[in-house]
Design a protein that fits this description.
single chain, 93 residues, mainly alpha, 5 helices, 0% strand
């Protein structure tokens, strides 16, 4: 896919969209997996979509429950989840 082209921003956006599709289908673990990948790319490459990703993660944390979200994140990435997910999205176009 886009990974091969090394277009990190496009890959991150695609992963985010896949996370939204999974969320819409009620597949919260699938949504978390895609959005966690998006978050990692955004952090590792200082991508401008970080605010949107944090907002999406915050919404998933709310739906999943904070404790379950933390357990899932630690199991998937091996680290504690980000805590700064309550972001102001009013400036996002």
């Amino acid at each position: 896919m886009f990974d091969e082209a090394r277009d990190v921003q496009r890959t991150a956006r695609t992963y985010g969209q896949l996370g939204m599709v999974a969320e819409d289908r009620g597949d919260l673990p699938g949504a978390l997996e895609w959005v966690a990948r998006t978050y990692s790319l955004a952090i590792d490459h200082d991508l401008p979509l970080l605010t949107q990703v944090k907002s999406h993660l915050g919404r998933l944390r709310e739906k999943y429950g904070a404790d379950e979200f933390t357990k899932w994140w630690q199991g998937f990435l091996g680290v504690d989840p980000p805590t700064d997910l309550d972001v102001d999205t009013s400036s996002i176009l």
